[in-house]
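Complex record, two chains
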Amino acid sequence: MYIMKPEIDKEKCDGCGLCVGVCLENGIMIVDKTVVAIAEVECDWCGICEAVCPNDAIRCPFQIIFA
Amino acid sequence: MKSKSELVATSVFFAGLKSAELEPIIKLVFEKRFEREEILFFEGEATESLLFLASGVVKIFKTSPDGKEQILSIAHPEETLNEVPLFNGGLNTTSAQAMMQVVVYMINKRDIEMIMRQYPLVASNVIHILAKRTRQLVSLVEELSFKRVNGRLAGILLENAVRDGESGAKLTQRDMAAMAGTAREVISRSLKAMEDDGIIGFDKHRLIIRDREALKKMSQTFS
């Protein structure tokens, strides 16, 4: 099964790690000074990582659909 | 993470003081650690010390009488968390909760008052800081009272929904905020209200429009 992960802009990410600390699923880690989302973890798309990022480098975009 | 002396030396509170003047101030600073989800302070409690966030992020929020949480802001390192109640002499106007492991540096209220009497420059810095806070709050009042965010957001959701096999634009809450000309926190609250009313729903990365007519009505009434 394909698991959706937050989008990370490596150019904008300065590796501050705030998103790593706030992720309730422990789904984000820092590799080579840049944040990466872990594929094995099922992301709840809560958007906390996006909210705390000072550089707008991590995004949880929504696909808007009709029921 | 900045050390106590680095934080004091670079804080706007103490801007303009010489390093010899900063030395005794640094000695008054003490450190406290909080684990994720731990409460730093509660709304309604007395404020005993000024909190400088040294590392981590903190959620500043209010709780409504029916228990709903409203996030007012997310504080980042080097911000102070409670200067308004501290100088107002009153009780905490908000609560604060650690969103990850957090370190704060604190100075007791009586020490800050003593520093301000000794160095009028610090008092002048405090006026600047409080004036900035007032400006931020005036902007928030404007957002909440004059702008029809719900109506604009309803329009944005309808315009960007996937239809007839076309893939609509994928939008983050930040994107929606930029499009509606408001803050991410305001969008977050509007989406939550729409979800509570059963107009929209969430399934992870999908935002599902459950009541298209209600959204249409909102976009026409409030835009």
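Note: The first helix of chain A runs from residue 18 to 22.
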